[in-house]
Amino acid sequence: MNRHDLHWNPVCRLDDIVPDTGVCALLDERHVAIFRVGDDELYAIDNVDPNARASVLSRGLVGNLGERIVVASPLYKHHFDLRSGECLEVPEHSVGTYAVRVEDDTVLVAI
Amino acid sequence: MKIVLIGHGMVGHKFLESLEACGLQAHVTVLCEEPRPAYDRVHLSEFFAGRSADDLSLVAPGFFDRPGRVLRLNERAVAIDRAARTVTGSSGEVFPYDKLVLATGSAPFVPAMEGSDRPDCFVYRTIEDLEAMQAAGRRSRSGVVIGGGLLGLECGKALRDMQLQTHVVEFAPRLMALQVDEGGGRMLRSHIEALGVSVHAQKHTLRIVDGHEARHRLEFADGSHLETDMVVFSAGIRPRDALAREAGLALGPRGGIAVDEQVRTSDPDILAIGECAAYEGMVYGLVAPGYDMARTAAAQLAGKDQRFRGADMSTKLKLMGVDVASIGEVHGRTEGARAFQFSDERKQVYKKIVVSACGKKLVGAVMVGDAAEYGTLLQTMLNGLDLPVAPEALILPASDGQARPALGVDALPDAAQICSCNDVSKGALCAAVRDGATTVAALKACTRAGTACGGCVPLVTQVMKAEMKKNGVAVNNHLCEHFAHSRQELFHLVKVEGIRSFDDLLARHGKGRGCDICKPVAASIFASCWNDFVLARDRAALQDSNDYFLGNIQKDGTYSVVPRMPAGEVTPDGLMAVAMVAKKYGLYTKITGGQRVDLFGARLEQLPAIWEELIAAGFESGHAYGKSLRTVKSCVGSTWCRYGVGDSVGLAIELENRYKGLRAPHKIKFGVSGCTRECAEAQGKDVGVIATERGWNLYVCGNGGMKPRHAELLAADLSKERLVALIDRFLMFYVRTADRLQRTSVWRENLEGGLDYLKAVVVDDSLGLGAELEADMQQLVDSYACEWKAAVEDPETRKRFRPFVNTDRPDPLVMFVPERRQIRPATAQERSPETETTA
């Protein structure tokens, strides 16, 4: 996909995401997990945990391991880097990432 | 220097690693007859338990990429020309050498008998042997191992892992006749049989012929026979010395290539190491002496003086999950030696120590079923340490409240070899600790101690802790990278400083953003101290998925719904209400192990509506999630049962209602039985109550699950008021002091002072905390509110229960298929391709 094909999709209001938690959006049949870390940092990765094949990553606990900002999958506790999508324990099970931004209190995700 | 190494097994590879450690610049060619480089033969049976050949590999990636190293796979050495100093390989290629190292290992011994070469008869040595066994296993129902020694039992495990009906046939009257004595052999046999493996001792197999019901029939000398589909020979090993013999090298009296202290053969340019070598006539069939020889050989070639002076044959293994250890001389052959034995038929533990005539030195030891003292006893023998006055205490279980007279690691000299596989001394470990290695993982990484067989890890840990203590370093019990405190310390800080938010806790005592370890711990501590609504906006982000959605997450991302049914009592109307909900939402229904009705397959968005209906029917959250009180199981007690002496149901309901929702370091379960027949299995619970003629007996710290533990009697014949007060104190004491995810059973095992101390604190109030603990519990009881009720009534919380934030469509990845007239999650194959590929 070319850069200019990126389409910014409005997803929800910023206030719909409790700080330090995630929500899941359905965009073009993709399950995208969007995390609000602290008050204003946003990250988006695939929501399907490849280790369990269930759409659950947005329900994981958010935190940091060293320099990495991560979510721990609620099923088997694998950690995913929110910036790169890398699965720390099983790198071959890493997930995709998406660009995300806020405009007038609306959260937008590009796919 | 040109070195040729024949054989790339564990010992051969250790030689290469040792060469590198010595810094010797040499050109090394390795001839390996197997199709793959060195792998861990000691853990071969794990291949059947799912480890791959790659997992077993001993060779670091890139090891042979460096200049001066050549590995020739599938190249068997067929001849040595000592005059020309060359080795000829099976490919016909000739390899010149300055120094030759023989590490040809051993071959399995197959006893002479008719039919031993029939199809589906195997030896157990290489990965190829295992692959052939695996293929045969798929078309077999039963398997026999001939040989009940170390390797034979390992092999029995492999057959059992293939789900074959497994038999072990041993010529001697008992298993592991070389290593353990008669008592140990007996205990070992009952362990092995309990695992479903049949043991046939004192059986001499004469021939293998066609079977009637299975492929083969083993005919024994006593006239009996045994039928089986496959046979594996594991009756010992023979050194592979043919190549050396043909080259004219001297052999040991019972075979093996004769070597001296410098592991040189009769030709000084040829060395031999491992199971093909015989030192003072002895062939060592263990990996540790082989490693020692490998290090000696490398040192020799590098011009250093290191000598092999024989090896101790002590071993510790886990055979089919059973600990077996043998130290020194255990058959009572030492003159004047005296033996002490301990045997516990219930726990299936057997221990014996043999002590010298003077009573001061350890001669040998056997342990079956539990080998916790292996490291200490081995060091005591190897270093000739003096035994305590009553040496039997070394193997007797420690009685409550008393520390065992440990032979502290302080007594060991710095030279004591703690890890024999990797030759790591106590001195080296202590030095590493002083350099900052303060976890077992760090010690393993920098010294390699404990990385081979792992038998020395408990002793390594002891040495580490002792050295840390000596250096004034606190043993690390930090919760995670964000908090340099234990859970117990954090609890104290939260309570004393009145901290109510994670941000506050982090700002005062932690760093970073927190993680999936410290957040739930903080949430649990806040709940135990303040009991505020767990899903309030500033606490919601701390909750694990189960607490966040007030259900137990299942493998497909759906949740379970469990309405509380205190003590398992439920009215027909209640049952009907539950059934109506289950039917309406299409949920899978099952009675749990804890006397409740579990409803599975609830989608996130259905949870609030389901709970609204259950709450309307009079139910509340069953807390079948998170770390909290689950159920209080009960029998029907004196109300209905002709034997019951107390109202177990009435009491169980009261207790369940009192402690419901209590957040703890681990989930907690109760049981109340109406009489000593114990139909509620109360002694398998964290808190167990049993009715007596005079009141109630209180048992604590029992556990079902993976590591069962019987509960212990804390106090007897209590009135109900006293009982409740003691449970209050006990639970609150546990909640305050246990580690994260520590069950009461493990907490109890680690409690210094044991049961006596627990009794002193809880029953006799020795710390004067009784009233405070009771008051804390009463505050939690008084502030209880059903979380589900709060959740469904709060629009903000309720909004979180939706699969997608931008659409009301249900999650298409959640799919069910019918089974036995209910639903179950679809398997990956059952899902349609278009929903499988969402990305």
TrEMBL record, chain A:
- InterPro entries cross-referenced by the UniProt entry: NirD, Rieske-like_NirD, Rieske_2Fe-2S, Rieske_2Fe-2S_sf
Q: Tell me, which GO biological process terms does this entry list?
A: nitrate assimilation
Single GO molecular-function term? 2 iron, 2 sulfur cluster binding
Coiled-coil region: none
The UniProt keyword set, sorted, is:
2Fe-2S, Iron, Iron-sulfur, Metal-binding, Nitrate assimilation, Oxidoreductase
Domain Rieske stretches: 9-109
Matching entries from Pfam families are given as: Rieske_2
* CDD domains membership: Rieske_NirD
Protein name (Swiss-Prot/TrEMBL): Nitrite reductase small subunit NirD
Which organism is this entry from? Ramlibacter pinisoli
- The organism's lineage? Bacteria, Pseudomonadati, Pseudomonadota, Betaproteobacteria, Burkholderiales
Name the encoding gene, please: nirD
Automatic annotation (TrEMBL), chain B:
Keyword Repeat part of the UniProt annotation: no
- Annotated EC: 1.7.1.15
- Binding-site positions, siroheme: C679
Q: Which cofactor does it need?
A: [4Fe-4S] cluster; siroheme; [2Fe-2S] cluster; FAD
Q: Which residues form the FAD/NAD(P)-binding domain?
A: 1-297
Which GO annotations describe the biological process of this protein? energy derivation by oxidation of organic compounds; nitrate assimilation
Which Pfam family is an annotated match for this chain, by its short name?
Answer: Rubredoxin_C
Q: Where is the NADH-rubredoxin oxidoreductase C-terminal domain?
A: 314-382
Where, in this chain's numbering, is [4Fe-4S] cluster bound? C635, C641, C675, C679
Q: Which pathway does the protein contribute to?
A: Nitrogen metabolism; nitrate reduction (assimilation)
Q: Does the keyword Cell inner membrane apply?
A: no
Its keywords, alphabetically, are: 2Fe-2S, 4Fe-4S, FAD, Flavoprotein, Heme, Iron, Iron-sulfur, Metal-binding, Nitrate assimilation, Oxidoreductase
InterPro entries for this protein: BFD-like_2Fe2S-bd_dom (IPR007419), BFD-like_2Fe2S-bd_dom_sf (IPR041854), FAD/NAD-bd_sf (IPR036188), FAD/NAD-binding_dom (IPR023753), FAD/NAD-linked_Rdtase_dimer_sf (IPR016156), NasD-like (IPR052034), NiRdtase/SiRdtase_haem-b_fer (IPR005117), Nit/Sulf_reduc_fer-like_dom_sf (IPR036136)
Any GO molecular function:
nitrite reductase (NADH) activity
Q: Where is the Nitrite/Sulfite reductase ferredoxin-like domain?
A: 554-616
Relay the cofactor remark from the entry: Binds 1 [4Fe-4S] cluster per subunit.
Enzymatic class? oxidoreductase
Domain BFD-like [2Fe-2S]-binding span(s) in chain numbering = 418-465
In this chain the Nitrite/sulphite reductase 4Fe-4S domain maps to: 626-747
Could you describe the subunit structure of this protein? Homodimer which associates with NirD.
Similarity comment text for this entry: Belongs to the nitrite and sulfite reductase 4Fe-4S domain family.
Q: Know the name of this protein?
A: Nitrite reductase large subunit
Taxonomic source organism: Ramlibacter pinisoli
Gene this protein is translated from: nirB
